[in-house]
Design goal:
alpha/beta; Rossmann fold
Length: 245
């Protein structure tokens, strides 16, 4: 499967507006592997997960197939960024304690990627992949976002997006570990939500096809429902964790 780049166009906004993963997730992942020497964050995007991994692991290599995403990644001397596809990392065999894939597994050629996982993981090492669906804010705001997701930009979602909705069913041929419950939380004003919605691949595909901004259809409603206040935004995470069979 060829790399389909849905994010380089909005790489700067992706780095600015994508929510941050909870630190508790990375502490827990560090506790389930035999050593905290080397973590590989695959399809790192702008490095949100990689930065948190660097709090737990001595060495972190973060890869992404998009050169623009890597160019806009969070700068941290503890993280080594590389441009590389998920299926061909360039890492040494049996070298990695933990592999993480944050909101990206659905884009991969899974057969080839899982082969790469088996090649680079150390004995008793682990792979963790997670995904999040729509956030919750309030019933009124959620209704507008849901309509935007399904009706306004719905026809422009890449086919792989359905795998996020069915992440629990995605093929994951490892000895699975049941994780605790984790969620992302942000304190946002409405401008940050609008910036986040603009990073969606479906939003960008709509803009490319229609030559107009689809957020014009819902921005007024979102602003009216949100007001001027800072609101709590929550994304429950679906986390899959496993060791080699």
């Amino acid at each position: 499967m060829e790399f389909r780049d849905h994010f380089s166009t909005q790489a700067a906004d992706y780095a600015r507006f994508r929510p941050r993963y909870p630190r508790e997730l990375f502490k827990w992942l560090g506790s389930i592997v035999p050593a905290n020497e080397f973590a590989w964050d695959c399809a790192t995007g702008s490095g949100q997960a990689a930065i948190e991994l660097a709090e737990v692991f001595t060495r972190v290599i973060a890869t992404d197939a998009s050169e623009k995403q890597i160019g806009n990644a969070d700068n941290d001397q503890r993280v080594e960024y590389r441009v590389a596809p998920a299926e061909q990392s360039g890492l040494d065999a049996n070298s990695v304690d933990l592999i993480t894939v944050a909101q990206a597994l659905h884009w991969f050629d899974l057969i080839r990627f899982y082969s790469e996982v088996r090649r680079v993981l150390k004995p008793n090492g682990a792979i963790a992949a997670w995904a999040y669906k729509l956030a919750t804010v309030s019933p009124e705001i959620d209704a507008v976002v849901n309509r935007y997701y399904s009706q306004v930009v719905g026809p422009y979602w890449p086919a792989e997006r359905v795998l996020v909705e069915r992440f629990e069913e995605l093929r994951f041929p490892f000895d699975e570990i049941v994780p605790p419950k984790f969620e992302m939380v942000a304190e946002w004003k409405v401008e940050q939500l609008l910036g986040y919605l603009r990073t969606w691949s479906a939003t960008q595909r709509f803009m490319a096809a229609e030559r107009r901004d689809p957020l014009e259809k819902v921005e007024g409603q979102l602003r009216a429902a949100w007001g001027e206040k800072v609101r709590r935004v929550v994304w429950p995470l679906t986390v899959r964790v496993g060791r080699l069979l």
